[in-house]
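User: I want to check something. If I give you two sequences, will you return the structure for each one separately, not as a complex?

Assistant: Yes, each is folded on its own. Here is the first sequence with its structure:
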Amino acid sequence: EVIAEVLEENPEHQDTLELLKLVDKAEAEEVPADLPSVPAAEDVRIVRLEKLQHGKKFDEVVKESDKMLDAGETTLGQRVIASILKGEALACQGQFEQADTLYKAAEESYRYIYRAIAGRGITAAARERWDDAEKLFHLSLQLKPTHDVALAGLGICATARGDRTKAFEFYRQALQNNPENQRALLGLIEHAYPLQRLEELEIALVRHLEYSPANLSILYAYAGCAYAQGKMELATEQLQKILLFDPQHELALELIQK
């Protein structure tokens, strides 16, 4: 196990000892591995925060999270997930220290500890602390093996180390668990061409577009993938869809003329 390996190297590693206590707490509570990442769907405020996060409206996420954290009637679970979402938004804005503080506080809740630990992994990766990032992503996966963010994070680490094959596999696994994970999809696109794994890329692109059919960037990637495989009719079909939304799309106009 990752924790055991770290402690074998450094038995006094304080952060790892703290994480071990939290992991032991989570296991003692017998938390199922497939816990949802957010509370029940009827919690409109959390759902709204998730949508704002998905839309990359990070300033609004921070503002709305603060409102929830200041509200007296919110539950512990709501405050924890609001802290995590705020941390993710701050991390996307480069405010890593503040994000880490929020993640560490959120680790006190066993239900969301896997997500908080993955968040710390993201901030470590952003600082190019690859060893720390990998350990944190693996810890997150110990608690929730299907967590797509941690899997995509390991893909980022493998990419930084120059291991395309391993990175591709991590991104592919992340997308199997969450086809909407755009960071994993972009990583898959990056490595599919040099690895000549375009058929697998095409499957991932199609699955993503089932959720976001108007994503022009991904439609263009799908067209390019089809074109590279000699599927000209399929490529043209995707380019025509793009031009319906944006008749002046330069890349689509360029490719459709080839």
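And separately, the second sequence with its own structure:
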Amino acid sequence: VLGAATLFGCTPHQRIRVTINVRPVCDLLHYSAAATTSLAAAQISKRFFLFFSGVYLGTEIAGFLNLAFRLVDTVWAISATAVSQVLLPTLSQLQHDRLRLTKAYRLSAASASAILYPAFAGLGVVAPELIQLLFGSKWAPASPYVFALSAVTFLQIARFPSAPLLSSIGYVRDVCLINIATLACMSTAIALTRLTSDYVALAVWGGVEFITFAATVLILHLRLGTTMSQQLNDVFVPFFASISMMVVTQIGRSFLPIE
């Protein structure tokens, strides 16, 4: 009621009349259904993975994995929300100029990678100390999982700007199909491997993320014409630098005296 009153008050010069036109409503419903399904599939995939981790690996390992996911997801939610609030309106304004849109997307992918890769690399490196500080020593076994998930997040960062891009140019259904395919791949991998160990579980999660990344690169190539080499070059330098930092830090940590 308040929204309708504000609309009427702000547009006194417009003649308001009742009309029946279902086409805009249908377009909105199609977009909403695809976007909702895409979000639901993405959320279900993670819950599905954690549930079967508990079934096959036991509640203790599932608890450590759940803590690792929550720690990584907290950083991801803060950073992804901040980026998406700027990215989607910007790309939507350029949807009719494909050349500028492609340049803006490539710039956003490179910028997001340069900012977020070091953040998640740092999270993975300091995971033992951070978990010790926040949750206590009994949760220390979760630190290798945080390290692995932080590395896997690099694939999510590389494809993160693609969802706002595809949505802004009317291909939200592609995003939906990618997330549904991810859920299907996750289900198949769990059924085949039965998550025989925690490292198998992490390999399944990382493998599915890689397949999702590859599918996203292919979709962008088909929809926008951006080559796969261009997409990889945009994120290669921060990716290589961050991975190198994680590897060198872990090697250096192994030479430190154990208290």
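Because they were folded independently, the notes below concern the second chain alone. The first helix runs from residue 2 to 10. The CA atoms of residues 115 and 245 lie 15 Å apart.
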